[in-house]
Amino acid sequence: MSQKLPKRWEMEEDLFEAYTGTCTQTSDVHWHSHFLLHLITGGCGVQEINNVPHRVQKGTAILLSPTDFHRNVVQKDEQISFCAVRISAELFYQSVKELCPLHAFPLVTHLSDRQFEIVKTLFALLLEEQGRRARLGYERFSGALIEQLIILVLRNSDKASPTAPSKMRKALLYVHCNFKNDVKATVVAQHVGYSPNYFSAEFKRETGIEFRKYLQRLRLDFAMKLLKLSPLSVTEVCFECGFHSLPYFSQAFKKKFGVSPDQIKEKHL
Do residue 176 and residue 79 come from a single domain? Predict the structure, then answer.
């Protein structure tokens, strides 16, 4: 990772991609189109996540969502080694839809020596499995390893106690995994086994607002992050966040935040 990172890391058609690496210099702020689980295996430094610095060292585990921005800050003559896995929204949702609370993101936790060795071993198994895709049960075994990794990291965090009912937890996680796409309440209702009318009522009872407004708020909050932290133009941000009309996006943004997207972008250039 001696080169500057792109503004966003994409992932190919695969459901996951495991890898190892070493950071020898500070990277640019960037984000991912997928979930990311990081394990620091050596060295120390700082991980800035959404502009908040977190001290990292051997045994630090980091779980990021597609709406989290981060960069590695490495001091001169220092380096940070790590292993990581990029996880598609589809696989992440399938793996932990009943377990993962939304307030867990971003998650930074420090593992005990024993937990570190277990998680490191699971990463080693995943890396080995990734290189042998013709093996019997490759997808199921890889998915099981990723699920165990996520659960172990969640268990080690004080954010691991979800409060929403199970089906609504699934629904909210699905929305947060797919909000940049054309997400409809009827589709989410089908995913969790509710009728559209019952889902709409339960969603409003659980969140306090209607599904459509919740989805728009999620998109606008992400748009604010993009405008402040990414090099994307206002037009690019509009479509990146799931909006299909620039005038409508600008109007909704100004209504929520009191300033236009152009004003935010100009301020943070």
Answer: no
Could you count the other beta carbons within 10 Å of the beta carbon of residue 42?
12
The 10 Å Cβ neighbour count of residue 260 is 14
Same domain for 224 and 176? yes
pTM of the shown model:
0.81
Q: Where in the sequence is the domain holding 209, given as residue range(s)?
A: 166-267
106 upstream amide cis, omega within 30 of 0? yes
Instruction: Give me the DSSP letters along 189-229.
Output: HHHHT--HHHHHHHHHHHHSS-HHHHHHHHHHHHHHHHHHH
Q: In this structure, are 89 and 221 located in the same domain?
A: no
Q: What is the pLDDT of residues 132-166, one digit of tens each?
A: 888 899 989 999 999 999 999 988 887 655 555 67
**In Å, how far are 160, 166, 196 from 139, measured between CA atoms?**
26, 26, 32
Number of domain units in the chain: 2
Residues whose CB is less than 8 angstroms from the CB of residue 232 and which lie 6 or more positions away in sequence, other chains included: 7, 226, 240
Q: Name beta bridge partners: 36.
A: 64, 86
